[in-house]
Amino acid sequence: MSNRITELFKIKYPIIQAGMVWNSGWRLASASSNSGILGLIGAGSMYPEILREHIQKCKNATKKPFGVNVPMLYPNIKEIMDIIVEEGVKIVFTSAGNPKTWTSWLQERGIIVVHVVSSVKFALKAQEAGVDAIVAEGFEAGGHNGRDETTTLTLIPMVKEHIQIPLIAAGGIATGSAMLATMILGADGVQIGSRFVASEESLAHEAFKKAVVDAKEGDTQLTLKELAPVRLLKNDFYKQVEGLYKIGPTKEQLKELLGRARAKQGMFEGDMDEGELEIGQIAGLIHNIKPVENIVDDIVKEFEEAKKNVPQL
Questions:
Q1: Which residues contact 75 (CB under 8 A, 6 or more apart)?
Q2: Same domain? 140 vs 248
Q3: Is the pTM of this model over 0.85?
Q4: Is 210 among the domain residues?
Q5: Does 209 reside within a domain?
Q6: Residue 84 domain-assigned (yes or no)
Q7: What's the confidence (pLDDT) of residue 145?
Q8: Does the first or last residue of the chain, that is N or C, have fewer Cβ atoms within 10 Å of its Cβ?
Q9: Residue 17 · residue 296 · CB < 8 Å
């Protein structure tokens, strides 16, 4: 399955395991890379020295390529980037910020840079900044999301129409058939997050993994757009947010309700009532918790089977 993405990252399949906060540690990243896809460590939930520890453990657990996802909105971003360089990481996915800020700096140090976007406008800005590839993420995705609520089905072909560099589709993808569909629309590969939350190697609390498996269609919602749009499982915390919206809250009231470490409380510590439970709409199609190797095998087999069935249409 060779194409621009497999060649860029030196991987077997054009699949990226998303770098998700409180889920994507060294175990998930190394297991993903060992399965023939690109594993990512999620730096967004790690202090700099914790990130260094995860990178070092990942290097010991796999000889295959892996990368780090870095949301650029954190104050200690320079320290994080320095650690990535010091530890010899060769692939960085950036998000939540201006790609011009770090792309050249990283590339000058021999690092492949991929930027995550949610619109054509930001895809063009990322291409102009010189990134090596783009992840275009539809609003079906879990966690922080685009304000325009553009779906993956429409976003991928619109971005493809305007860029020349490799394109990775994300948002609502957990199966081989969805992977094939987005590649028919113009993507060179896919980034998958929610499916890997429900893996044995994910850092997520077992209670959160169970909640993902139990989720049905309609159990997630995009909310908190005044702060930073985020897709959550509906729980008591979500109900509190919706209750506040009924009175027309200010940003300050929303920030006060959100508080600090709400995502850690839910996804990592397992508070299913008061925690922030970030997951995508595709959770309704996730029915079990499996080792990463089995998840990748399932996706690849379904992808190949779906390709065979296309002529019948």
A1: none
A2: no
A3: yes
A4: no
A5: no
A6: yes
A7: 83
A8: C
A9: no
